[in-house]
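debug: dumping io for the single-chain case to check the tokenizer round-trip. Nothing else runs in this session.
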Amino acid sequence: MPTHSVIVYNVQRLFSPEGSRVARSLGFTSHEGWTDEAYHRKVDAVGAVLADAVDGARPAIIVFAEVEDHTVVVDVVTAAGWPEMVDVIVPGEQVDGYDVAVAYDPNVFTGGVVACTSHLFDNRFSTRDLLEVTLAVGDGRQLTVCATHWASRVLAEAIYLRFAAAAYCTRVAEARLKFTRDELITPTGAAQMPSRERLLDRWWTPQLIGGDFNDCPWDPSVRALLRSTPDFATVVRQPRLPLGTNLRSVASYLSLRPRLYNPTWQLLQSEDPPGTYYFDSDWNPLDQLLVSAGMLREPGPRLVEGSIGAHAPRTVTSRTGHTVTVTTSSRVPIGFDAQTGDGASDHLPLVATLAFD
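debug: decoded output
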């Protein structure tokens, strides 16, 4: 049974040193210390943390938050020792910067990218708020990966923005797991229910949602609106599909709400840090990984139960030979310091294992 890692990592404002509009608005210019040298030192540190998190073994998927563009993603995966990894590029995308990105191993997903869509819903910056990517394993199986980054807690109105983000992400997720109203009702208003086999096949679609939610697993945005739960049995329970094929059956089917499994709760009981971000004297599992019911069943790709953890090394050594202190003695992540070259990100990477039966 081949297994491969998936990493979710907010790398904390990793901008290109070119001085984009978004970078300038956030104070990342050479005048303020964001030089070519600082950029490459940070890239080396982030790459070293990634490699250390998986003992150098190339992961199947990396979900990034706070990366500026394609060049940054390529530089980071190269610094980790994985130049073969492919950054997903959305054709015709019109944005000022990425923010979220997905890189994948083409030796795992030999069928490459089947579809990809960039969703913008926050509107503070013209950057990706949700990147939806469908990857093909190569034997007909597919995996949809959604990378997202919700509004920061420092914004006064952020809680409402995160509620809106959760509702949007839920609609995108359900569109992969269920047939839509337009697919179930003809232009003349007649019902056209698919077979039970097709309904179940859609319901068990493997889907992974990862990123920095800026909320914890127990917060209403993640638990209620996104309908996520730590209860494995609830997620894999067979849906109560309607038996008929009329409009009443269509309405009954459309009312079904799939649940997502959130293994990030397990951080609270692990020997690893109980979160990926430390704020106000407490750990917060803001970076999360959620999966659909289809990723809890054989054949894969499926989540290996109990495999999730936050990676918190004290130091790492980059491929250029620099030893970088990336956490405190209490394993709290240290944000990158352009003056000293220490630190990598104020978030820890989240690592889990996928099985490809």
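debug: round-trip ok. The chain has nine helices and 18 strands.
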